Amino acid sequence: MSKLAIYYRVKPGDCYETPKWAVDCLLRREAFEGVILEPCCGQGAISKVLKDYGYGVISSDIRDSEQIDGEKGKDIFSINKVFNNIITNPPYSNINDVIKHFSRIYNKKMALLLRLSFLESMSRYEFFTSFPLKVVYVFCARVTMYPEGEERPKNSGSVAYAWFVWDKDYIGNPMIRWIPEKEK
């Protein structure tokens, strides 16, 4: 894959490590059956927590650096195999295309850590109408994520995040739940 293609898929600075406590919060609220795909694994922040909970995980990342904790150089758009579940913190630079692709490669549940503002816009309204959510778990405390390799400042993040969960067996209106836990 060319460097330009990698730049398009994952722009520099679009790789943020998910804090363990944020993954714990999801797993205390949602159970998953079967194998979980983590297609944007980076250094394995989410994958390691999933494995600690006893889940079978297949991890990959488009980047091919030594620090990647999974299959290196795997473009998410080249994944066509269907998995039971997907859990990831996807790149935001082309999020609409990413989610549309993911919607075709899972058959049970998908949980994505996204900015709360992902709920906004007419195009997303149309998307959610045809691809309804089960639940949005909104973090009351800010989830602070840092670009890989950068020093961690003492202040918290300025962006509101939530776990967006789709469940192919769920019938009903989307729910909103709050996560009151704070970083530990």
UniProtKB/TrEMBL annotation:
PROSITE patterns: N6_MTASE. GO terms for molecular function: methyltransferase activity; nucleic acid binding. It comes from the Bacteria. Gene3D superfamilies: Vaccinia Virus protein VP39. InterPro entries: DNA_methylase_N6_adenine_CS, SAM-dependent_MTases_sf. GO terms for biological process: methylation. This is SAM-dependent methyltransferase.
